[in-house]
């Protein structure tokens, strides 16, 4: 399957699925009971592509989408790619200044958004960060992007009419609306190649400006195929997507995982613990993809409600990614909900998944994201030489799913893509004798206490072994005696009576006094990026004020 189709363009993929599976369901939006078939997907994607072309947008340029999950968002991003444009994902929770930087740096000429986000986008276009970044590259004849609103409740979207948009001024809000979009046959959409840019997604770095990861049409499709292969997806499967489509997990894993396997997905507007299992049951979902934070919340709320354990024969597996999953939380989830939870690992730079545990009844291991699927993975030392089994080093990955560059950042691209296309991930890990990869930390997150390297995840896992801990993260603090010392922050279940002394005592028993946190801070929530990863560097700022 993969070998014969991985060099398709996204347009060719959608057209083929529309031909072979025309009347089969692709997408369900549960709040409106809207169902979209593969044929309807093709028509909507084609129309949005033609409407973008009708605006005079040049082939291969950046078109941004700033939208909440739903059918409009899914059809819009697929329509952008279908037309051969570079889809720029706008993280709606990144903040005005980051959005401003992304819009300017990506050289987006069009922003497709919804009414509820118009103020955020126009504010970003009017702020100093946008003006400064724009001015740096004014010689490239970048234009202030047109702003177009799309109503997610309009089920007649993209059927008749045409785009109506205007150029918003830097200090002026746009009240542009998308009304009765049509297939404008006077404007032919350009030919699309599998090697063309498809997606520009900015990483949620904790320091400095975010980097723009550029993925080709092939990379995005292969990312979807890697998911389908690892999880043995077929046209009989149905995914529940509760992660935003401006994040690589939601986009490549569920949207493209379903597209390449001719299966379907349920796409609510957002994640909710109160509706999660109802959506699984009502739509008989066979799998779902979540992040560890959501897993912790589902466990927490299940404990509060004391729901009975329900065995769902139609639910094949759940999938965890985007951050390491504590083995204790992993086991608790499987016992509580009677569903296999498959730990995986992916990166924005690799179109999501690179590692996955096998499905039952094959051997799975807790505490590891698994084995390479659809790509090569190796562990190297600081000289980029491959290390022996069991030895810790940096994780490198190579494959057709890997990005081709950081957008307009040649120096960082050269530092990251080495030795014939190997991607330096910045993750530390080791392989065991069975080939399973264990992630031990991040190069930039190591705590160096008295010259000794301490992996924060080792402390996290010790804290997670207490059932009352919902979230945990160890981090470095400056120290006159050791250079750095270990501290940690936790979120506890609401009913917990745990004290700082209790947790420190437990940590000391598990990791020893030297690695044990000197202090533990109790927070309502830990700071996270859009993928659900806990941002350790921000915790120190939070607790010290």
Radius of gyration, rounded?
Answer: 23 Å
From the N-terminal CA to the C-terminal CA, the straight-line distance is 54 Å
* Relative strand content: 15-25%
* CATH topology group of the domain at 38-219: Rossmann fold
Number of strands: 26
Question: Would you tell me the structural class of the helices and strands?
Answer: alpha/beta
Number of DSSP helical runs: 16
The CATH top-level class label of the domain at 38-219? Alpha Beta
Overall pLDDT: 88
Question: What report would you give on this structure?
Answer:
The protein is of the alpha/beta class and 545 residues long. Among the domains are: 38-219, Rossmann fold; 446-544, GMP Synthetase, Chain A, domain 3, CATH 3.30.300. It has 16 helices and 26 strands. A 9-stranded mixed beta sheet has the order 2-1-10-9-11-12-13-14-15, with helices on both faces. A 7-stranded mixed beta sheet has the order 6-5-3-4-7-8-18, with helices on both faces. Strands 16, 17, 19, 20 and 21 form a 5-stranded antiparallel beta sheet that branches. Helix 2 packs antiparallel against helix 3, helix 5 (96-105) crosses helix 6 and helix 8 (217-230) packs across helix 9 (248-260). The protein is globular, with a radius of gyration of 23 Å. The N and C termini lie far apart (54 Å). Mean pLDDT is 88; it is low at 153-188.
Keywords:
single chain; 545 residues; alpha/beta; GMP Synthetase, Chain A, domain 3; 16 helices
Short description:
With 545 residues, the chain is of the alpha/beta class. Helices cover 31% and strands 24% of the residues.
